[in-house]
Specification:
463 residues, Rossmann fold, 6-stranded mixed sheet, 5-stranded parallel sheet, 44% helix, binds pyridoxal-5'-phosphate
Length: 463
Amino acid sequence: MKYVSTRGAAPELTFGEAMMTGLARDGGLYLPASIPVLGADDIAAMAGLTYEEVAFRVMRPFIGDTFTDDEFKGLIAKAYAGFGHIARAPIKQLAPNHFLLELFHGPTLAFKDFAMQLIGQMMQAALAKSGKRITIVGATSGDTGSAAIEAFRGLSNVDVFILFPHGRVSEVQRRQMTTPSESNVHALALDGDFDDCQARLKDMFNHFEFRDSVGLAGVNSINWARVLAQVVYYFTAAVSLGAPHRKVSFAVPTGNFGDIFAGFIAQKMGLPIEKLVIATNQNDILDRALRSGDYATNGVKPSISPSMDIQVSSNFERALFEALGRDGATVAKLMDDLKTTGNFRIPQGALEDLRATFASGRCSEEETQATIARVLAQSAELICPHSAVGVHVAEDHLGTVPMITLATAHPAKFPDAVEQATGLRPGLPPRMADLFDREERVTRVPNDLAALESLILERTGRA
Ligand SMILES: *Cc1c(COP(=O)(O)O)cnc(C)c1O
């Protein structure tokens, strides 16, 4: 299995190489040269299996000979052993024909643990084979950072640096990043917003001399291995509601488009998905793009669902590449337009193609609050603001096939918003009860590439 860049001008890589590389050298994102298809029998045979067994069957065709079957099974087992629920991704019913897929039972209480715990295991195993040392740098609007730190803390061949927007993550999110005491963990509070963090990260990857000197590796949601890990729960959820004999739809609270793009891959693999519903908060570039055909940035407005506060949605490039019939040169041109003018027009054919698979909707701050309150009143479930965005938008798209809304974080990660909406303050699970007593360790950094690079060189002993 070979991996190709969405901009068509980077070397083809193996799965292991694409995982270590993250962003391609032409600025593009890696995708498999072709997407393996599972037959209806293969999907039907997943009924009743453990999450780990389904994970192996779904991901195995993508990893080539990076790991043997036994190695890969071992890594999957370790990745999910620390989850607080035996089903890993359990489903609850919310309303007639509307279901909630709970993706917040991992160590940092958000869905990003599904991908990060596995990528941590896979990178460690690959580094152990090669004897190399790498520097992970990630940008986060909150949940990626804590998930990455949790996955890499204490690993001997890895330094992990996480950039988060100063003052724009919740206290639980910040403490999950700043309280681990291992010396290979570096939490950096950047003076700027999430898009600034993401832009500086991209700059580092495009600075090849720096990239090579520190062995830079990315674990942001553009990393293909992360997308792949997220494909699995689309299968477990759909199969438990009757796939492949019955179709389902998914509503996905969306920021960087990684989670919902995993659903797109599941559909391409043969899972009968009717619609993938993009749910955005007031940072609604994706909803506007799908409706109008104009992908146009207009700044970031901080919201009560901060993990979706984005201006540009990195993984959308992958969907665009597919919708353009894998025309990397055109993707490169559109991305260039975006960089220079802040917008681009989605070609008409590609737009129709996207609309055949994706629907979309937007949820205001007031609607988010009202949805949290209403779901508690109607279904006795306390949900986080991101999940509420998903539920609100999903309700506009209910039909005859079951709708599954992804619950992307535990309500206790966003206690202020949940309390404001319901009067109830959700408590942390017992294993995290002392989070507010632990000592914090964080470095404030300017929004400046040179300053960031010299800090990383110094901390990794290379200055
Ligand atoms: C990251 C995140 C999202 C958005 O996921 P994308 O893959 O970036 O679209 C939604 N909800 C929560 C809680 C998150 O942490």
